[in-house]
Amino acid sequence: MKYVIEKNNSMPAYLQLYNQIRDDIVKEVYPYKGKLPSKRLIADETGVSTVTVEHAYALLCDEGYVESKERSGYFVIFLRGDGFASSSSQKAYHFPVMENSTNYSPEFPFSVLAKTMRGVISDFGKMIMDKSPGTGREEIKGAICRYLRRSRGIITDPEQIIIGSGSEYLYGLIVELFGRERLYAIESPSYKKIEQIYRAADARLEMLPLGCDGIDSSALRKSNANVLHISPYRSFPSGVTASASKRHEYIRWADTGNRFIVEDDFESEFSVSKKPEDTLFSQTEKENVIYMNTFSRTISPSFRVGYMALPKRLIKDFKERVGFYSCAVPTYMQLVLAELIENGDFERHINRVRRKKRREIAERKINE
């Protein structure tokens, strides 16, 4: 083996490893039905954790390169004649957009949730009744940091994570952070509550029309906005996903002048693409992107818990302008979510849903 993980590479370690092993499979370094090296062996060679190797192997399984056999390991199921493209000639595949996507509610296993909730009560006792710090407890902020690093290539410290009672609450904090004198731009059409909350906060608002791959370039170029609020992954209700080129266009826009982007990454965990879309937060070099997501889709609509990752340059401003707000998410809820992330149940659920969606798409294509 010759796998090398570049510590300074912006690409997460598991994706670096995935790309290298995938290329070896395509080149038939590992033949059809051949067994891949053990997770421990690769971890020792590359200096990463076995969890990182497991993530790389899970992605190879999801994409049909290998399969896992219980207590035996991982085996190659890729055949060179299967139609898989090599890394140098891979073609993009556009997945169909599901109609009424917001009605799609993949259920988190209740038995797993109930077990975790009981465990948190047992482990923390009366501590679950403590008041939360204003930006959230360290347990959940640390868990989110580690999850974002693994799954999205986002490198953050816990002090950059803000916990809030759902996305709508966080939208309001953004206006408080940047101020009402700025001009905010949002996609048109976009999730209705985004516009409603900005207007309710007396923020000045500009609507930018969406094209087939994101906001219309001419409209973005002419915009006088200071803050751009976007949903790069399958914006609702249009279903438009920003292309890689469009994402870089957004970053170039923000790099001109004192501008910021709010990257609303709602529902992106359930993407069926072969690897997670690169986030603007991880791509920018000027720390001008706020990353935002929520657990209301991945766990349950009743879990009104959202979070945002601030660039470090905004931490001081946030503390001065918004730091007096109390965190409205109960300590108990935060500890439950932290445990679901740390013990792997959260990501196992996401992977199950993604595999199910892939099967549904494959079956639909066969029946067409």
Any idea of the CATH topology of the largest domain? Aspartate Aminotransferase, domain 2
Helix content: 40-55%
Computed structural class: alpha/beta
Number of domains: 2
CATH class of the largest domain: Alpha Beta
Strand order of the largest sheet: 3-9-8-7-6-4-5
Structure description:
With 368 residues, this protein is of the alpha/beta class. It has 2 domains: 1-89, Arc Repressor Mutant, subunit A (Orthogonal Bundle), CATH 1.10.10.10; 111-339, Type I PLP-dependent aspartate aminotransferase-like (Major domain) (Aspartate Aminotransferase, domain 2, 3-Layer(aba) Sandwich), CATH 3.40.640. The chain is built from 13 helices and 9 strands. Helix 1 packs across helix 3 and helix 4 crosses helix 12 (331-342). It is globular. Residues 81-104 have low confidence and may be disordered.
Q: Helices, strands, pairings?
A:
Elements: H1 13-26, H2 39-46, H3 50-62, E1 66-69, E2 73-76, H4 110-124, H5 138-152, E3 161-164, H6 167-178, E4 183-188, H7 192-200, E5 204-209, H8 217-222, E6 227-230, H9 244-255, E7 260-264, H10 280-283, E8 289-294, E9 306-309, H11 315-321, H12 331-342, H13 345-367
Parallel strand pairs: 4-5, 4-6, 6-7, 7-8
Antiparallel strand pairs: 1-2, 3-9, 8-9
